[in-house]
Specification:
This protein has a twelve-stranded mixed β-sheet with strand order 1-2-3-4-5-12-6-11-10-9-8-7, sandwiched between helices. The protein contains eight helices and twelve strands. Strand 4, helix 3 and strand 5 form a beta-alpha-beta unit. It is 36% helix and 29% strand. By secondary structure, it is an alpha+beta fold. The radius of gyration is 19 Å and the shape is globular.
């Protein structure tokens, strides 16, 4: 049974009632929890896969201290936990019989949870990626700007967006846990959530997306340029454009994640005015036997 501190449920409304104020108290650090739960609320619980999502809230002395969610087949997504809280949650979920493909959280939380999960389930935890969360300070557009112009993607671009989304998720190793590409494209087109950079002759060469605004924050995602078009300044130009759009829409925080192994993108975003907030780690679990 779950100890009383952790309230674990499949009811999104119940989760948001308990955790909503906590998540909004630090919108930058909780950006993924805010944007994913808003997508689930507005578009349905199975937009990320066929399994039922699960949500958890840690309460102590009447105060929410942490939260998690998981949208199968994706990883468990944790807000920061103390070492004891991380190992305790891993133990509880193992006793529940949960099957986890991995975890994503800030560095220490992810490492503590992954280590305890491995001990409890006889599994190994492989580091999938280390990411850095940035927030926008003073926007510094690139100079010179590459030839061409930005424009909002429309329904006429659906096939292009779908193809690029597949390529993007494959490039970052997330193709098995991503949304249906067509549904993703339709949702982004519906609210103008993808901007393309196109050459003077009208050829799309790069894209950058923004999430819908939740708790005053938006996140730039994804940013993708096909391999044969890279190194020409397109990604910087289109990212600057969506960042400018987010600010114009009165976003209080404009955020983005980068892969720490990609030195080119980290340097680019810092030149644009993005500043570090927190580092995160994702682990994949490979189970050798049932939980003990």
């Amino acid at each position: 049974m779950t100890p009383p501190d952790w309230h674990i449920t499949g009811d999104l409304a119940q989760f948001l009632t308990r955790a909503g104020e906590f998540l909004r108290s630090r919108p930058a650090l909780h950006t993924v929890h805010l944007t994913v739960t808003e997508a689930l609320r507005s578009r349905g619980l199975r937009i990320y896969g066929e399994g039922d999502p699960v949500f958890g809230v840690l309460e102590r002395d009447g105060e929410v201290r942490a939260a998690f969610f998981r949208t199968p087949p994706g990883r468990l997504m944790l807000t920061p936990l103390t070492a004891g809280e991380a190992t305790g949650l891993a133990a509880q979920l193992a006793l529940r019989g949960d099957k986890l493909p991995g975890v994503m959280a800030e560095l220490d939380t992810a490492a503590e949870f992954a280590a305890e999960w491995g001990r409890r389930t006889d599994s190994t935890a492989d580091l999938h990626a280390r990411q850095r969360l940035y927030h926008l300070g003073e926007l510094t557009p690139p100079h010179p700007v590459p030839p061409g112009r930005p424009r909002i993607a429309t329904a006429n671009d659906r096939e292009q967006l779908t193809r690029w989304y597949v390529e993007f998720t494959e490039a970052i190793g997330e193709s098995g846990t991503s949304q249906d590409p067509g549904e993703w494209a339709d949702a982004r087109i519906a609210y103008g959530g993808i901007t393309l950079w196109e050459t003077p002759d009208g050829l799309p060469v790069s894209m950058a997306g923004i999430t819908t605004k939740v708790a005053g924050q938006v996140r730039v995602a994804p940013v993708y340029t096909p391999a044969d078009r890279r190194g020409r300044g397109y990604a910087g130009a289109v990212t600057a454009q969506v960042s400018r759009m987010a600010r114009a829409a009165n976003a209080e925080e404009v955020l983005l994640f980068t892969d720490l192994a990609n030195h080119t993108s980290n340097a680019l975003y810092q030149r644009l005015g993005y500043r570090p907030v927190e580092d995160f780690a994702g682990y994949d679990f490979h189970t050798g036997s049932a939980p003990r």
